[in-house]
Design brief:
Layout (H helix, E strand, L loop, with lengths): L1 E5 L6 H11 L4 H8 L3 H14 L2 E5 L12 H7 L1
Antiparallel strand pairs: 1-2
Helix pairs in contact: 1-3, 2-3
GO biological process, one term: regulation of DNA-templated transcription
Protein name: RNA polymerase subunit sigma-70
InterPro entries: Sig_transdc_resp-reg_C-effctor, Tscrpt_reg_LuxR_C, WH-like_DNA-bd_sf
Length: 79
Amino acid sequence: MRLEIRGMEKLSFRERQVVALKEIGYSNERVARRLKLSASTVATLFNRARNKGYEVVMIIPGDQLGLFGPDEDEEEQGS
């Protein structure tokens, strides 16, 4: 799985760090511990980033979802 943050050029380095961790489900407290910040600073950075606008896209290969098998290409070519 890959996480892509579109519009991240608008964000500061710290905002990018906070966004990445928050978007994968970390709580403010967990982000704060990881980045050695206070939870209120994390909340402020996250809100500031949201106001600047960004879009998170999660890229998950189909094989990780069990949607495509190794014979998929052969079946399509035979049709």
